[in-house]
């Protein structure tokens, strides 16, 4: 008798019988693409490589091919083969450094989103996924392909796709999660991928400023706190400090699982015993880091890889007590707005999960949200303040002033909740580099942010 299993999207099916995917060449898979098609390359290291090159080779045959992707870890052949974007149009949910350069060149367009809502976009608002192509580990003995440590919104893409092609990646580490496996009966075609190492995300060395900010945040982390950590030197510096602190019984409920969080787990600082969701487990939606991190996740029952609607929605985040959300920004104005994804009209990354974790942490009992930044940056040899009277024209507000909780620079930490606009301005000026404080206060008074009668 067939054993019932729960497949992608929660649909019941059996693990015996049903269709068997057909093994074809990358060129045969690329031949499935027609003008006007919408393709989905999914995210990060799940994006296809051999299929991508085969499709790029058809650049002279096609037109009006649309591709959604996210966080490219390697150059995309379809972009390199079509520098004018006259054949392949690429739409991206969140930029990597490579994606940013392609956007600067006019070859990639950003899709505004809260990352945790994307599965819902596919189910409610995205009409077409003609072909979805993504990497997966080789099929296991039960007839399942494992997508590796990056579930994110893949289940919703698979539900929507008319045709599903899996590019088999022999070095993809199988991981544990309720929706990271795809049964063969859901797959139309298989292509053999390269036996190549997983792309790694190098860690930048923490600066003195990073460590100063990290010390202020680490002092706010209590026993039993449930961590979310974003990408960057400052959040990673916090996890390094926690390694050497006395804090214990930490939980992890995060969108991105980075090397620092995995090091905390390996050091025995993470138990998850006080979590309400996935008690005793490390919950994440995708991982980017070094090979040691991927090796730790391989078939490890202490980790739970879930789609972003299970990690990023504020009401789910808030079910855990003492959530600590730590995220970077690039600019804060004197009212407390954070611009974390653009430099004026130049888009550099994406909203990601920042706003959702800010809101989820605030709603958590005893929760704390930290937005951190260096007080200054240098451009063309000129030092400038990241705390400004107003955001740079064109800058996108990632975290509104009404949502901002703690702001941290190397000069201190302030909680903006409950503070008036003038009180916020004074507090934020105190976080700026001393060389800019007088000018910030002068401009704040001239603009009426701080009335002349106050302070």
TrEMBL record:
Regions of compositional bias (Low complexity) in chain numbering: 11-20
The keyword RNA-binding is assigned to this record: no
Record domain Acetyl-CoA hydrolase/transferase N-terminal: where: 23-199
Pfam families found in the cross-reference section: AcetylCoA_hyd_C, AcetylCoA_hydro
Region (Disordered): 1-22
Keywords from the UniProt entry: Transferase
Keyword Transferase belongs to the record: yes
Sequence ranges assigned to domain Acetyl-CoA hydrolase/transferase C-terminal in this UniProt record: 289-444
Family stated for the protein in its record: Belongs to the acetyl-CoA hydrolase/transferase family.
Protein name: 4-hydroxybutyrate CoA-transferase
Organism expressing this protein natively: Roseomonas fluvialis
């Amino acid at each position: 008798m067939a054993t019932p299993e729960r497949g992608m999207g929660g649909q019941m099916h059996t693990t015996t019988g049903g269709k068997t995917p057909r093994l074809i060449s990358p060129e045969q898979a690329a031949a499935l693409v027609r003008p006007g098609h919408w393709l989905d390359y999914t995210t990060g290291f799940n994006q296809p490589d051999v299929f991508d090159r085969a499709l790029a080779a058809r650049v002279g045959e096609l037109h009006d091919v649309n591709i959604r992707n996210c966080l490219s870890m390697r150059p995309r052949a379809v972009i390199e083969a079509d520098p004018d974007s006259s054949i392949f149009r690429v739409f991206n949910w969140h930029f990597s450094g490579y994606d940013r350069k392609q956007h600067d060149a006019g070859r990639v367009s950003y899709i505004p989103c809260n990352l945790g809502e994307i599965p819902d976009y596919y189910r409610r608002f995205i009409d077409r996924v003609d072909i979805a192509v993504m990497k997966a580990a080789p099929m296991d003995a039960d007839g399942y392909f494992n997508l590796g440590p990056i579930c994110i919104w893949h289940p919703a893409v698979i539900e929507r796709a008319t045709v599903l092609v899996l590019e088999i990646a022999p070095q993809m580490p199988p991981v544990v999660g309720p929706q990271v496996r795809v049964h063969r009966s859901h797959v139309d075609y298989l292509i053999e991928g390269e036996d190549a190492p997983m792309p790694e995300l190098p860690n930048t060395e923490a600066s003195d400023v990073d460590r100063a900010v990290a010390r202020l945040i680490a002092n706010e982390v209590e026993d039993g706190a449930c961590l979310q950590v974003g990408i960057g030197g400052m959040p990673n510096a916090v996890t390094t400090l926690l390694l050497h602190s006395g804090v214990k019984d930490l939980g992890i409920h995060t969108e991105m699982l980075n090397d620092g969080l995995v090091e905390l787990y390996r050091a025995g600082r993470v138990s998850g015993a006080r979590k309400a969701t996935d008690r005793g487990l490390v919950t994440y939606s995708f991982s980017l880091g070094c090979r040691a991190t991927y090796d730790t996740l391989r078939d490890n029952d202490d980790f739970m890889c879930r789609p972003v609607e299970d990690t990023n929605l504020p009401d789910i985040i808030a079910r855990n007590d003492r959530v600590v959300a730590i995220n970077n920004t690039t600019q804060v104005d004197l009212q407390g707005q954070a611009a974390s994804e653009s430099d004026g009209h130049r888009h550099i990354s994406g909203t990601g999960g920042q706003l959702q974790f800010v809101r989820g942490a605030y709603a958590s009992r005893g929760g704390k949200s930290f937005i951190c930044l260096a007080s200054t940056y240098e451009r063309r040899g000129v030092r400038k303040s990241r705390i400004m009277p107003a955001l740079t024209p064109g800058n996108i507000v990632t975290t509104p002033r009404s949502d901002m909780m703690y702001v941290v620079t190397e000069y201190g930490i302030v909680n903006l909740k409950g503070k008036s606009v003038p009180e916020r301005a004074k507090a934020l000026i105190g976080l700026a580099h001393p060389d800019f404080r007088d000018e910030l206060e002068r401009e704040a008074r001239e603009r009426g942010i701080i009335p002349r009668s106050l302070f």
